[in-house]
Each structure stands twice: as C-alpha cells, then as structure tokens.
Amino acid sequence: MLDRKVNERIRDFHEVALGFSADEAILEAERCLQCKKPLCVTGCPVGIDIPAFISAIAAGDFSVAATTIKEQNMLPAICGRVCPQETQCEGACVLKNKDTPINIGALERFAADWERERGFSAEQKSREQTGRRVAVVGSGPAGLTAAAELARRGHKVTIFESLHEAGGVLSYGIPAFRLPKEIVKAEIDQVLAMGVDLKVNYLVGRSVSVPELLAFDAVFIATGAGLPGFMGIEGEQMNGVYSANEYLTRVNLMHADQFPVFDTPVKAGSRVVVAGGGNVAMDAARVARRMGARVTLVYRRREEDLPARREEVVHALEEGVEIINCAAPIRLLGDGVVTGVECVTMKMCGLDGSGRPTPEPVADQTFVIDADVFIEAIGQSPNPLLIREVSGLSIGARGNLVVDDDGRTSIGHVFAGGDVATGAATVILAMGAGKTAAAAIDRMFKEQ
Ligand SMILES: Cc1cc2nc3c(=O)[nH]c(=O)nc-3n(C[C@H](O)[C@H](O)[C@H](O)COP(=O)(O)OP(=O)(O)OC[C@H]3O[C@@H](n4cnc5c(N)ncnc54)[C@H](O)[C@@H]3O)c2cc1C
Ligand code: SF4
Q: Coiled-coil intervals in this record (predicted)?
C-alpha cells in the first residue's frame, strides 16, 4: 500500500496510507492460498471468514466481500486501518514463513471503503423486537459492537456517551491522518441505522444516575481506559506538560490545530519531548510534528521492544521524529514553564513477566533535551468515576472491572468489556469483548 509523500503529509492531518486500487486488491487477493484450515481466522479476535472475503475480492465481487466481513465486524474500515494485523491474522497467515503474509488489513479496508463510497447496503432495524432494554455506557469500539449485536437480536439499545461525539478513542485519540473522522462517523451511523439510540453528553454516574442505569434490563459498561498515568517526576506540574490523552483530545476532538477558529487551544511548542513507546506515544509525536515542532521521543527500552505498531514507528521516523531508545525522563527543568527534560540512560537487565527486558537506570549517565512541551504517554487505566459509583462491582488490582468469560460483572445483569476490563488494549479486542457480552446478555434474556 502506498503512502503520501512525507513533505506533503507532514503539513496536514489527511490520511497517510493511500489504500489499494481495485487492481492492486485483486492482485493481492489472488496470492491467498484459500487454506482448508485457515490460520488467519484463528488469529482474528472476531472470527471474520477471511478466506471467503479474500476470495470474493479476487473474483471482483467487492460487495460480497464487504458483506462477508460485516457479518462478524461492524467497523471494517476502522479495523482495516488500525488493527495490529501483524500480530493477529497476518501474523498467523501461512504465507508468513514462505513469502510475505497476505495484506489482510489493506484488503479489509479496500472492501469496506469500496462499499461505503458507493453507498452502504445498511443493515436495517431488526423486525422482531423483544421489548428488552439494554443500556450501553461508552461509545468506543466495545460499546458500538455490543450495541450492534444486541440490536441485531431485536433488543432496544441506548448508548450513553459522556463526550459530545461518539467513537471513544477512535474519535478523540487516534489522529485523522491514521483514521479519518468521516470514516468513523460513517461506520457509527451504520450501527445507529440498526435502531440504536445514541445519547451524547451523558456522563453516567452524574447526568444519568446509577439507579436509572440499573433499571435497564441489562447494562454493558464499556467506559474504556481514559485515565492517564503520570511518571511522578519533579516538575510535572509545570506549564507545558500534557498527558498524551489530553494533548490528543485537544487536537483530534476539539480541533486545537485550528485555534482560534475552534475555542480550544494547545501549546504547540517548538521543541516537544514525548515519553513512551506505544501507539499513543507515536500518535502524540506525529501530531506534534504536524503542529510544527521538532520532536524527540524517549523510550526506556530498546528499539526492538517498542510496543507501537511497526508501521507507526516507520511513519514517525520518516516524518522526522527523533527516537532515543534506552533512556527515561527523570526531571523536568524550568521555572513554572518547562524548558528542558533531564533523562537518564537505561540498561537492560533480565526479563520481566511479559518477556521484555527490565530497564534499569545507569548511575550518572544523564543528559538534557531542550523542550517547551513535554507529553507523557506511559499508559492509561480505567476511568474510575462510574466504577466507584456502582456499589457491588468487583474491581481488580489495576482499577479494572473484574468480569467472567461472558463479560459478566459481580452484579447479575451488569456486563462489561473492552479497556475497562482488560486495561488499555486494542480496538479489535474491545470489539470481541462487546460481541461476547452481547451474546451472553441475549442468552440471559432467553433463560429468564
Ligand atoms: C492514542 C491512541 C492510539 C491507539 N491506537 C490504536 C491502534 O492503532 N490500534 C488498536 O487496535 N488500538 C489502538 N489504541 C487502543 C484502542 O483505541 C482501545 O483499546 C479501544 O478504543 C478500547 O475501546 P473501548 O470501547 O473499551 O473504550 P474507548 O474507546 O476508550 O471508549 C470508551 C468511551 O466511554 C466513554 N465514557 C467513559 N466514562 C463514561 C461515563 N461515565 N458515561 C458515559 N460515557 C463514558 C468515553 O468518553 C469513551 O468515549 C489506541 C489508543 C489510544 C489512546
Ligand atoms: S492463512 Fe493466509 S493464505 Fe491461508 S487463507 Fe488465510 S490469508 Fe489466505
């Protein structure tokens, strides 16, 4: 898949990856071996019939390809763009060890875009209505998927979203140059076309009370992991320090890049330092580049340990983000306003529980990077507001909601899934959790 030229794309927020043409998609689809036991499907958390949709593309039947994907995945244009396919379907593709794995993500994106650009064959509201009412809290991928699956089964779903726009991280976190917002909106509109009611600007636990919430026949909590972590280093309270979450929300959701046309400002800075190495850190760094700053990203482990998708790292480097590996910020310098970030060199010692090396600071090996903005992207945890308000919910050590394999919490008719249960994870895992919980809620209704 081709990308836009660096010197063009660095000036705007338009999408970087250009997508396949029809001819390119057919060529790529023709490489698929149509395996009898397709390993790619075992690597897909929502179980898309990957060989079937690829075969439809190879035959030029793009509409059938899109319909096949949507049987299991209501957000295909989104997943085709942001899923970590390299560790999922493509990572499991049998061609990985012989040749290059099939570019399943790009094919999914192609089929979804092809259909959307020609007008969706939107799934309509289910004709058989059960009369059961389900409240979904949060409109990220977990909430949207649960809502679609429940509506498909004839249940009346109301999604409550605290922000003024639906989509969760898809809207406020992932920048438009990776995931255009009109695509997010179009796929959300498909879910709403199934009869799902969306109420934005409703903070459940405040503008919707807990008794009102629990009065629904079932509840699915999908409030995500929007609480940013901070390093707790000296100088963090100074002007010019942001969590990546706040920085990205200001630009992606509140359009701070267009201030004062839009009301929300952001300090763009001329020298930005980002701490972290995941997708969130790469997104913050690449946004900061587009805001005109020179950007340095500091990561405490080695380059090969960077948790961000490889494509994001490559794009960040191409766009001029400097990455310093094996280093960590230890102090922010300045007098009320950040002027520099003091870092220490890290050495790798032993392996931690996840198999990654444990970084340890090297005594006296410190250095300073000049900076007027410092962005922390070192992890997020579940937003505690609603979880604390609902008494009787079992909460795990990381502030996550404890659920069983069906997504059921410690309260019988309350289910949960996505980042609020797993901690910060991925779009497709959140969607998988939404599907699982919806099926369990449906079973519960049938058994009552
Ligand atoms: C910057 C960034 C980049 C990422 N990049 C990728 C990527 O490339 N690929 C990938 O797979 N994953 C990526 N992720 C992770 C992925 O986006 C999340 O795992 C996923 O969005 C989790 O979905 P969710 O539905 O559980 O929660 P969220 O998407 O967080 O949605 C939760 C929603 O609940 C709402 N909410 C919270 N509390 C309340 C309340 N009390 N009342 C009403 N509404 C409430 C929030 O406003 C939010 O809209 C990224 C995350 C971030 C932050
Ligand atoms: S594993 Fe790879 S080659 Fe086999 S069906 Fe899946 S995508 Fe095609």
A: none
Indicate if ligand 1 lies below 6 Å from the C-beta of 82.
Answer: yes
Q: Based on the domain organization, do 203 and 282 belong to the same domain?
A: no
pLDDT in tens, 302-333: 999 999 988 899 999 999 999 999 999 999 99
243 lines ligand 1 (CB under 6 A): no
Which residues partner with 204 through β-bridges? 208
Provide mean pLDDT across the span 436-445: 97
d(CA 29, ligand 2 centre) in Å: 10
pLDDT at 122: 66
Summarised one tens digit per residue, pLDDT across range 195-249 is 999 999 999 999 999 999 999 999 999 999 999 999 999 999 999 999 999 999 9
Per the document, the length of the chain is: 448
Q: Are residues 261 and 352 in the same domain?
A: yes
**97 pLDDT above the threshold of 90:** no
Asked, for residue 127, whether it belongs to a domain, the answer is no
- The answer as to whether 202 is a domain residue is yes
Among 376, 411, 433, give the residue marking a domain's end: 376
Instruction: Based on the fold, state whether residues 185 and 143 are members of the same structural domain.
Output: yes
Regarding the beta carbon of 427 and ligand 1, being less than 6 Å apart is answered: yes
Same domain flag for 360 and 255: yes
Provide the CB-side half-sphere exposure for 182 (13 A, CA).
6
Helices then strands, each counted (H, E), the chain: 18, 15
Q: How many domains does the chain have?
A: 3
Q: Which residue's CA is minimally distant from atom 13 of ligand 1? A: 426
Question: Both 264 and 371 in a single domain?
Answer: yes
Clarify whether residues 22 and 104 are in a common domain.
Answer: yes
Residue 173 CB less than 6 A away from ligand 1: yes
pLDDT in tens, 275-291: 999 999 999 999 999 99
Mutation probe of ligand 2 site: the residue of 36, 102, 103 with most atoms within 8 A of C-beta: 102
Q: Tell me 46's DSSP state.
A: T
Contact 137, 220 (CB under 8 A): yes
Order the strands of the 322-324 sheet from edge to edge.
241-243, 373-376, 271-275, 294-298, 322-324
Structural domain span for residue 366: 230-376
Q: Which two tokens stand for residue 306?
A: 């960077």
Residues 296, 314, single domain; the answer is yes
**128 occurs within a structural domain:** no
